[in-house]
Amino acid sequence: MEKDVVLEVKNLSVAFEREAVLRGISFSVKRKEALAIIGPNGAGKTVLFRALLGLVPYEGTIAWADNIRIGYVPQKFMVDRGAPLTVKEFFLLQTEHFWMPQKEFLFHLEHELRLVGLDPIILEKPVGELSGGQLQRLLVSWAMLRHPDVLLFDEPTAGIDVGFEETVYQLIHRVQDERGTAVLLISHDLNFVYRYAQKVLCVNKDMVCHGSPQEVLKPEELARLFGSGKLYLHEETKG
After folding, report:
1. Distance in angstroms (rounded) separating the CA atoms of residues 128 and 103
2. What confidence tens digit (pLDDT) does each residue in 181-191 have?
3. Of 11, 15, 108, 177, whose CA is between 20 and 30 Å from 120?
4. What is the pTM of this model?
């Protein structure tokens, strides 16, 4: 594995009950690099993340760099709306596995909450009372707490306000620059992909492509990937 490579995947395939979901996927991700994963619904993008995290069986090779720290933001997170657990308690469940005393941990946590646009006063609020947007922000800060080397985002802005979309995008760019974090992000927002990703991985049952946004986000390639439906493309991708 090359020095700056944090993840190398070779010929990855995943099948459930003998039905192939992913076939022959190969790519690598370097430190500070953002890889966007695009494709139609049901193409196996979330399954790819689950394979990378070792949650489903697969064939092929998934090689992470040594001592890598991984943060993961799922697309959906089920919450018991009747549970009395506060946001502070939600996070303090992690302190026994953390590297700092509780007082320092809470100071660090408040900093991470502010990065995603949450006032630390939310720490006293029951998790079950959070709005969908607040919960999604919370999950992003949870994933960032340990300053991971790699962040996996599964549609982090799905179903949330436009203001938070821009917050997430700026945050991704910031952790790349300031912390050297590599980012793997599943997204249907092609404008974001064009603006922020250095590499793009296209996933579909019948095709796989990997390259720069300029190479991949061409009308003819997107038509092959998504079918003949109408696509709203970034102005720079239109021929």
Report:
1. 25
2. 999 999 888 88
3. 177
4. 0.83
